[in-house]
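Ticket #4471: structure output looks truncated?

Reporter: J.K.
Steps to reproduce: submitted the chain below (66 residues) through the standard prediction queue, then opened the result file.
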Amino acid sequence: MAVSLREYRARIKSVESTKKITRAMELIAASRIIKAQQRAQAAAPYARELTRAVSAVATFSNVDHP
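Returned output as attached by the reporter:
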């Protein structure tokens, strides 16, 4: 089955288009990961202080909890 040059060109164009879309999606995902990591780092001091406060309350309480 002979495939025409037009079909080859259409297939190449389709693959290139898919490649561009995939690359754009990768860039968006990478950007979102970086933003999430930055938010997690920014929240770390709050989480650390909250953990410290809860530990202090638990340490000095006289309640027996199973």
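Triage note (M.O.): checked the attachment and the full token line is present. The chain has one helix and no strands.
Status: closed, working as intended.
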